[in-house]
């Protein structure tokens, strides 16, 4: 009887030990099966439809964005077709760039689609004539930050950088002299964060006075928006400081996905 009890006790100890080993092995297997998915490359849509003035520099701007994408790890699609502005199509993009768009470029349904895209966290970047766009759409005015009013002849001017903590301006000199077509603005959204102002004492034809914003950004309606008024000329898109400025703007509107993008590689 005593031997039988000892046998049962030994059997119970052995069974518990095997169960413990089995549980440990199962945990190792579970941990080994966990795989971290790599973050997909950001995807940017460059939109360049015009219903008004057509800027001959648009193809140069498109080429510059394609080159930036290749060198800095983000995908660039380009289109002049507004039918992409529906939720099913837009949701594949992390940011949309309005590259010198002009006039009425989206119909009412496309406007709704774009508003929903921004509300879902999409990024928006406007370049040059993006402010010469959609004058009858108040939501767009607040998004882009202002409307174009007029411009003098193309000439050199000094851009006074106010904030160098932003990726689009961190590399710029405080007094940035360059040649471009300098816009005067109306209906400026007071809630935008101004990164740089135009010094009207350094050129002829300015109409905004001492407070002449020329580069700005803000968070708006669930998304992020950035605007730069430069980019009228074809030469802008091979100008190293300006191209790096564009890359910094892309990085901002991409949000978390923009953190992995370099703001140095602009060969």
Automatic annotation (TrEMBL):
Residues 1-26 form the signal peptide. Keywords: Signal. SUPFAM superfamilies: Class I glutamine amidotransferase-like (SSF52317). Residues 43-253 form the ThuA-like domain. Pfam families: ThuA. PANTHER family: GALACTOSE-BINDING DOMAIN-LIKE SUPERFAMILY PROTEIN, SECRETED GLYCOSYL HYDROLASE. This is ThuA-like domain-containing protein. It comes from Pontibacter ummariensis. The lineage of its organism: Bacteria, Pseudomonadati, Bacteroidota, Cytophagia, Cytophagales.
């Amino acid at each position: 009887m005593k031997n039988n009890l000892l046998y049962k006790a030994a059997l119970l100890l052995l069974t518990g030990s095997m169960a413990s080993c089995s549980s440990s092995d199962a945990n190792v297997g579970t941990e080994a099966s966990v795989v971290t998915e790599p973050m997909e490359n950001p995807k940017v849509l460059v939109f360049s439809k015009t219903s008004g003035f057509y800027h001959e520099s648009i193809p140069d701007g498109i080429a510059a964005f394609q080159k930036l994408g290749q060198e800095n790890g983000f995908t660039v699609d380009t289109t002049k077709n507004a039918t992409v502005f529906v939720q099913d199509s837009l949701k594949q993009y992390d940011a949309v760039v309005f590259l010198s768009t002009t006039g009425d470029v989206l119909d009412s349904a496309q406007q709704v689609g774009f508003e929903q895209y921004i509300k879902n966290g999409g990024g928006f970047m406007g370049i040059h004539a993006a402010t010469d766009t959609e004058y009858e759409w108040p939501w767009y005015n607040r998004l882009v930050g202002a409307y174009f009013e007029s411009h003098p002849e193309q000439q050199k001017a000094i851009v006074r950088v106010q904030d160098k903590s932003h990726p689009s301006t961190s590399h710029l000199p405080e007094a940035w002299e360059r040649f471009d077509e300098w816009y005067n603005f109306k209906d400026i959204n007071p809630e935008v964060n101004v990164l740089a102002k135009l010094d009207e004492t350094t050129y002829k034809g300015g109409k905004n006075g001492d407070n002449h914003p020329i580069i700005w950004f803000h968070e708006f309606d669930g998304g992020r928006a950035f605007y730069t008024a430069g980019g009228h000329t074809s030469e802008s898109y091979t100008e190293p400081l300006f191209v790096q400025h564009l890359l910094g703007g892309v990085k901002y509107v991409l949000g978390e996905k923009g953190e992995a993008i370099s703001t140095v590689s602009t060969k």
